[in-house]
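Feature request, filed as a ticket because there's no other form

It would be nice if the structure record came with a short human-readable summary line next to the tokens. Right now we just get the raw output. Example of a typical job, pasted below so the devs can see what we mean:
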Amino acid sequence: QVYLVESGGGLVQAGGSLRLSCSASGRSFSIDSMAWFRQAPGMEREFVASVSWSGITRINQDSVKGRFTVSRDNANKMLYIQMNNLKPEDTAVYYCTAVTSRELTTDQVMDASLYDYWGQGTQVTVSS
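Raw output as currently delivered:
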């Protein structure tokens, strides 16, 4: 079993920045791909960014291009996302997720159903 805990959310004005962290823990596991998804009220879960074990990153080009940066610390089992120039449209609960079976391909990273474990989320609220 893998347990994921997000932190770093909060209230920020438009144009501000936040960095979210995700800590993974458990027994006898290895994590392959990790990702951030977000879900706003009344909306479906949306892919934000991912990092493979080998360090390949993917960013949602339609919503966060040029503003968010994702990174990973394999030794400490941590996932981060640096969010700059935040907009009210970024307001959502941000979830950390991971797969342990294999690295997901470029075509698979955006599919939430392929991930094995999820955190409980951290709220990000961006005011105008």
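Something like this underneath would help us a lot:
The mean pLDDT is 93.
The two ends are 40 Å apart (CA to CA).
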